[in-house]
Design a protein that fits this description.
The protein is an alpha+beta fold and 289 residues long. The protein is 29% helix and 24% strand. The protein contains 6 helices and 9 strands. The strands form 2 sheets. A 7-stranded mixed β-barrel has the order 1-2-6-9-8-7-5. Strands 3-4 form a two-stranded antiparallel sheet. Strand 1 and strand 2 form a beta hairpin. Helix 4 packs parallel to helix 5. The protein is extended.
Length: 289
């Protein structure tokens, strides 16, 4: 884990120097949009909707669309005048009962690690939150903007959870007409709840979709159903474990079929390797079946 922010939690006259870490990561399966014929990745151009011309990054500005469809262009100077902050303080505003905060307000979670000099006040704040069964409502500046968040304790670690603003929570615009509910029906519903009652254990649930996708892709790789493209499909940034595993599987399949992983080689080599490739491909298909 890598700290993404450093600052201090302040409550009263106490200051706790801390580091901030992302507490969650997405393992959602992602797909590329490709040409079904040859596997080439689809590219998108930045095209102006008015003149149809491609627009360079240097000519792209921020625009705010009004309710009547008018577009207001905001320059870099305009953006610089907007209120922003780079404060390194997590300021505790108040301590509130844990059950007063609607979980719908929670947005993103971060772990707080104390610096060596802040270990004792960190432990004191953690114990105080546990004993009082309260959350600390705080204000903090992340990504140049001040936001409201809470501090709570999870497995001996203080967690900071950013919150959405109240006007970002949508209200349902529909009504539910349930009609008459009979006592016998309520009793039966209560009985069903008691029958299925239990403690929550997240390890009991698995991402069946991701596992099914991985199995499907591996089966296609072993069957030789792989499109060779001249450009690398490696993405920038952190590589998802699934994609890394699939990349290694592709390289292993290419090696088994006698193909060079760097797509090098001339026509003569390709022709001389052709019988070996056919034999390897047959063997792979036989293994898959």
């Amino acid at each position: 884990m890598r700290a993404i922010w450093k600052g201090a939690v302040s409550f009263g006259l106490v200051s706790v120097p801390v580091k901030l870490y992302s507490a969650t990561e997405s393992h959602d399966v992602s797909f590329r949009q490709v040409h079904a014929k040859d596997g080439g990745r689809i590219k998108y151009q930045r095209v102006c909707s008015i003149d149809g011309e491609e627009v360079a990054y240097a000519d792209i500005a921020k625009g705010y669309e009004t309710e009547d469809g008018e577009m207001v262009i905001l320059t870099d100077d305009d953006m610089a005048e907007l209120p922003s902050t780079s404060s390194r303080e997590i300021a505790v505003e108040k301590f509130v009962p844990s059950d007063q905060i609607d979980p719908m307000l929670f947005e993103k979670s971060y772990y707080l690690e104390p610096e060596k000099t802040g270990a004792k006040p960190y432990a004191l704040l953690r114990q105080a939150l546990l004993d009082a069964d309260r959350m600390a409502v705080v204000t903090v500046a992340l990504r140049q903007r001040t936001t409201v968040a809470v501090l709570r304790v999870r497995e001996d670690v203080i967690v900071l959870q950013t919150m959405m603003w109240p006007d970002e929570i949508r209200q349902p615009d529909f009504s539910i007409d349930i009609g008459e509910v009979k006592d016998a029906e309520v009793a039966m519903a209560n009985m069903l709840v008691e029958t299925l009652a239990g403690d929550f254990d997240p390890s009991e649930f698995e991402d069946d979709y991701a596992e099914a996708v991985e199995s499907l892709v591996k089966a296609k790789i072993e069957g030789g159903e792989v499109k060779k493209t001249p450009t690398s499909t490696k993405s920038s940034g952190e590589v998802v474990d699934l994609l890394a595993a699939l990349q290694r599987s592709v390289e292993a399949a290419k090696t088994a079929r006698g193909e060079a992983t760097d797509d090098a080689g001339d026509d003569a080599d390709a022709k001389s390797d052709k019988p070996a490739k056919k034999t390897a491909k047959k063997a792979a298909k036989k293994k898959a079946s």
